[in-house]
Amino acid sequence: xxxxxxxxxxxxxxxxxxxxxxxxxxxxxxxxxxxxxxxxxxxxxxxxxxxxxxxxxxxxxxxxxxxxxxxxxxxxxxxxxxxxxxxxxxxxxxxxxxxxxxxxxxxxxxxxxxxxxxxxxxxxxxxxxxxxxxxxxxxxxxxxxxxxxxxxxxxxxxxxxxxxxxxxxxxxxxxxxxxxxxxxxxxxxxxxxxxxxxxxxxxxxxxxxxxx
Length: 212
Fold this sequence. Notes:
This is Outer membrane protein beta-barrel domain-containing protein. The protein is built from 1 helix and 10 strands; from the N terminus they run αββββββββββ.
């Protein structure tokens, strides 16, 4: 009986093909305080992911672990108003903050093939976000920056985030797929800064996936 059960398991489960994805897209990020957006901005990201898992043959369901490296250009914009002693606004300037981030995600995801040409998946996990460099500046309209300075390491927070993503793909040729994904990222813990700054980001990605 034990051998029969083992045989059934072996015939219903196979090693899932590894998948490598090169991707890029846009992202919207925000600093949030009590559900109120303090700062936000739109920028871009690119990177590569790799996944490996097992496939349940009868359902075409694959459970896989996924990780990789993502570069995120994180940018925020605000308008600063300058007031005189009577509280009247006499001038304004645009303020910007930008960070070059390295994101390392670790997901557990499930995906399923339909008609051998369409794939949909859903996953969640954690990510570590580390700013590599940062800069802030102010400028008026299209003039040269009034002030510009590089951010120090203690002014940039390395943090742990929760991620949830949904994806869909279409096979274009054997082993090669076009995949689109939407990912939400929510900061949960600081790993370096003493003051917690609540951040969230949403990524819309498009990429090519190669199944090994």
